Amino acid sequence: xxxxxxxxxxxxxxxxxxxxxxxxxxxxxxxxxxxxxxxxxxxxxxxxxxxxxxxxxxxxxxxxxxxxxxxxxxxxxxxxxxxxxxxxxxxxxxxxxxxxxxxxxxxxxxxxxxxxxxxxxxxxxxxxxxxxxxxxxxxxxxxxxxxxxxx
Length: 151
Prior knowledge:
Blueprint: E1 5-9, H1 14-30, E2 33-40, H2 65-86, E3 92-98, H3 101-111, E4 116-120, H4 127-132, H5 135-142, E5 146-150
Parallel strand pairs: 1-2, 1-4, 2-3, 4-5
Helix pairs in contact: 3-5
């Protein structure tokens, strides 16, 4: 199996970090390009990285919810990309898209011609995920390429 492009969707969760470890090893072993993706929620703060939680309390700075969401998404992908580069990977790209996570992952896999998706089995999802099924399950069922789910 030729692996030239690996897509690593991340939400910054512990399972996503485990998946990043494997994605980095595979990218290094196959000299593959690694794309780190985060699907930003359209509404609702969801899970915010600790270092960003205080931003909304600054009186002299006007920060919207959209600004916070975008900053959180950028922090998540840039942190993962930095870890990948620290492991010696040179060909690492980041991508933040807005919308439903499973749809964003599937669309990106097609657009970027991913050979492999490496993602965590459980993320930082909400009640909707419990009721309608996990992102990893939806992606595994419909992915245009092989999909590795890490626990």
